[in-house]
Design a protein that fits this description.
- The chain is mainly α and 337 residues long.
- The protein folds into two domains: 274 residues, Rhodopsin 7-helix transmembrane proteins (Rhopdopsin 7-helix transmembrane proteins, Up-down Bundle), CATH 1.20.1070.10; 49 residues, no CATH class.
- It contains twelve helices and no strands.
- Helix 1 packs parallel to helix 10, helix 2 runs antiparallel to helix 3 and helix 3 packs across helix 8.
- The protein starts with 17 loop residues before the first helix and ends in an 8-residue tail after the last helix.
C-alpha cells in the first residue's frame, strides 16, 4: 500500500482492518472534497481580486488536498479488494506519488502560514513594507519542487508485483534488500526535512504569536480566540495527522511497526481537517484591528495593517496618533493581515 510499508512476505491484509481503512477513506473523501472545493473557489476569487501572501499559501494547500482526494478512490478500491491491487499497474506508483506528495507538502504550507502570521505580529512595520505576493509564489514553487523531488522515490524504487492466486498484486507492500538500502535512508530524510523542521518552526511561530497577542490589552478577546484557534488547529493537524506516521520512520527503521498502517490512516485525515485551518486563517485576517483609543505606544501594532499609503516611521508622534484616531473613528479596519 505505501512506499514505506511492510517488508518481507507479510501481507498487509492480515495486519489491518479493511472496514476501518474504508471508513477513514470514505469519511475523508465525503467531508474533504466539498469543503476543499469550496475553499479552492474562495481563495481563487480572493487571489484574483486582491492577492495576499497568505491567500496564495492557502490556495496551494487546498490544491494539495484536492490532489489527494482525487486519487483517494483508487485507495478505496485497493482496500475493498483486500489490500490487493486490481487496477492497472501504472496507477499504483501514480496514486502513491500524489498521496504522499499531498501529505508532505501540507506540512510545508502549514509552516509557511505560521511564519506569515508570526512575522505580521512580531515585526509589523518591517513585514508590512516587505510583504509581497511574489515571495509567497516563489515559496510555493520551491515547496512543490522539493516535495515532488522527494516523492519521486516512488518511481525510483520499482515495486515488485507479487502475483496471487487471483492474478492480483500488492502495491508497495514488500521490498527487496536492494530496495530497502535506498528506502531506509529516505525514511530518515522525510522525517527530518519534511516533518521535524516544519513542525519545530510552526510551534515556535504560533507559541510566540499567541504570547504577543495575549500581552496586547487593546485586542478584542474574540480575535485572540481566533488566533489561538488557528494555532491549535494547525498543531493538532501536525500531532494527530503527521506525527504518528513520521515517527514510524524512526521506530520502524529496520522493520515497520505493526501500527504503521494505522498511522498512515491518520495522515489521510489531513485533507478533512485542513478546512478548519482555512476557516481560522480567513477569519483571522484582521488579527490586530484599530481600537479606540489608539495610544501611541501601541500604534505600531496597528500601523502595518492600516489601509492606504505606506506608513512612514518618521512621522511625529502627535500626527501619527491623530491619523490612527481618525482611521478608527471612521470605523476603518486595519486591513488584511
Amino acid at each position: 500500500m505505501s512506499l514505506f510499508s511492510f517488508e518481507g512476505a507479510e501481507k498487509m491484509s492480515s495486519k489491518v482492518s479493511i472496514p476501518l481503512v474504508l471508513t477513514v477513506y470514505i469519511f475523508t473523501f465525503l467531508t474533504g472534497l466539498p469543503s476543499n472545493l469550496l475553499a479552492f473557489h474562495t481563495f481563487l476569487v480572493k487571489v484574483r481580486q486582491k492577492t495576499t501572501p497568505v491567500d496564495i499559501l492557502l490556495l496551494n494547500l487546498t490544491v494539495s488536498d484536492i490532489f489527494l482526494l482525487i486519487f483517494l478512490p483508487f485507495k478505496m478500491v485497493e482496500a475493498a479488494s483486500g489490500m490487493e491491487w486490481s487496477l492497472p499497474a501504472f496507477l499504483c506508483p501514480l496514486t502513491n506519488y500524489f498521496y504522499y506528495n499531498s501529505i508532505y507538502i501540507s506540512s510545508l504550507f502549514l509552516m509557511a502560514v505560521s511564519v506569515d502570521r508570526y512575522l505580521g505580529v512580531a515585526f509589523p512595520i518591517k513585514y508590512k513594507l516587505r510583504r509581497h505576493p511574489a515571495y509567497a509564489i516563489a515559496t510555493s514553487v520551491v515547496f512543490w519542487v522539493v516535495t515532488c523531488a522527494h516523492c519521486s522515490i516512488v518511481y525510483i524504487v520499482q515495486y515488485e508485483v507479487l502475483t496471487t492466486s487471483n492474478n492480483m498484486s500488492h502495491c508497495y507492500e514488500d521490498f527487496s534488500s536492494t530496495q530497502l538500502q535506498i528506502l531506509l535512508p529516505v525514511r530518515l530524510e522525510f522525517f527530518v526535512v519534511l516533518f521535524c523542521l516544519p513542525f519545530t518552526i510552526t510551534i515556535f511561530c504560533y507559541v510566540n504569536l499567541v504570547r504577543i497577542l495575549v500581552a496586547l490589552p487593546n485586542i478584542p478577546a474574540r480575535r485572540k480566540q481566533r488566533a489561538v484557534g488557528l494555532a491549535v488547529a494547525t498543531l493538532f493537524n501536525f500531532i494527530v495527522c503527521f506525527a504518528p506516521y513520521n515517527l514510524s520512520h524512526v521506530v520502524g527503521f529496520n522493520k515497520s511497526p505493526s501500527w504503521r498502517v494505522y498511522a498512515l490512516l491518520f495522515s489521510t485525515l489531513n485533507a478533512a481537517l485542513d478546512p478548519a485551518i482555512f476557516y481560522f486563517s480567513s477569519k483571522n485576517q484582521t488579527l490586530l484591528p484599530c481600537t479606540l483609543p489608539c495610544p501611541f505606544p501601541k500604534a505600531s501594532s496597528c500601523l502595518h495593517l492600516l489601509q492606504g499609503p505606506d506608513p512612514a516611521p518618521s512621522i511625529p508622534p502627535p500626527l501619527l496618533t491623530r491619523s490612527f484616531s481618525l482611521g478608527c473613528g471612521r470605523g476603518v479596519g486595519c486591513g488584511s493581515g
